[in-house]
Amino acid sequence: MFQLTEEQDQIVSLARDFAREEILPGAQERDKTHSYPAEIIAQLGDMGFMGMLVPEKWGGTGLDTVTYAFSLAEISYADASVGVILSVNNSLCCYPLVAFGNPDQKDRYLPDLASGRKLGCYALTEPHCGSDAAALRTRATRNADGSWRLNGSKVWITNAPQADVAIAYTTRDPALRYKGICAFVLESGMPGFRVGKVEDKLGINGSGTAELIFEDLDVPAANLLGEEGKGFNIAMATLDGGRIGIASQALGIAQRAFDLAVSYAGERTAFGKPIGAQQGLQWMIADMAVRIESARLLIYNAAALRDAGKNDSRACSMAKLAASEAANFCADKALQIHGGYGYSKEYEVERLFRDARITTIYEGTSEIQRLVIARSFLS
Question: DSSP for 289-320?
């Protein structure tokens, strides 16, 4: 078993306490009403959790990936919607600015994003392409003055309804595939930038997901992120960290489902004894525990490799695959252990069952993770 340092443990414990005391009590109601947790996000910003990977110079807490991952798991334990809002802001918006932004871009955007005063999103997926990230059609055309004009749309964008800043990916020419992709830092107030359809989803209902539409959106040359034509590299490097974030979210869901299942199995009686005394349920509990612990260790490994500056793509995919499938397995078994009550919206496991499902889809499907892992050995 890995061991967190004293400082890491203190921060993760802070996240745990806040999650259980402030986030968990309202999670069911937010899910029911599809309410965005604005007050909670503001509090997380004040506590430094919205900019955990941002250096202190730009208003963040400058923490390591291990601390970030396990803090995010604790928050997701209480509400996976809050967890994914935090994950996208940290992993998919702040990270590429820290890693690829120039000093002016960092000064302009990171302090507000890290403090929670503004919210970020990551705009990659389009109506016709998701896993094939090189097949973008949103066009970026250079204007005579060196600025850019964007036309196209993005779909399934987490945080889009509330986001102030978007890291958006476009192409100079679809025929160029990955060689033509450019990344831009966009602001929601730019003329030509608008939010389209807001999705009515199966789960993660406290987190907004929507279409973004760019119509003759003029973007200053200063808002190009990194080098022209290098956007695909930025997107892929960003997704590795994003996969750690979603793995952590999934771990939180799995752990909550496990804890509720164990508690219910000890309290519910049938045939004169707790249902947890039945071997069939004991095997479910054992299988859940093994999957959770496996995911936890894989997340730690991926996060530690990232902190060490080592190539972590395979490790990130392994962590995301294991944790997302553990979340779905554990939510399913927790619902089964609860029986008919688990099928009722009055019980939390029903929400966990719905929230878990997306984790095997976004930030790269389980099938894509398997391709990444296999190719890392075969290439």
Answer: HHHHHHHHHHHHHHHHHHHTT---HHHHHHHH
In contact, 170 and 182? CB cutoff 8 Å: yes
Q: Active site residue: 126, 199, 363, 367, which one?
A: 363
Domain boundaries along the sequence of the chain: 6-119, 121-232, 239-378
Of the candidates 217, 258, 242, 257, the residue with the CA atom closest to the CA atom of residue 313: 242
3-class secondary structure, 166 = strand
At 201-219, the pLDDT tens digits run: 999 999 999 999 999 999 9
CATH class of residue range 121-232: mainly beta
The 3-state secondary structure of 53-87, one letter per residue: CCCHHHCCCCCCHHHHHHHHHHHHHHCHHHHHHHH
Q: Are 102 and 42 in contact (CB under 8 A)?
A: no
E strand segments, 143-208: 148-158, 165-171, 181-187, 193-198
Whether 126 sits among the annotated catalytic residues: the reply is no
Residues paired with residue 183 on neighbouring β-strands, in sequence order: 169, 225
User: Position 278: which residue type?
Assistant: Q
pTM for this model (two decimals): 0.97
What's the CATH code, domain 6-119? 1.10.540.10
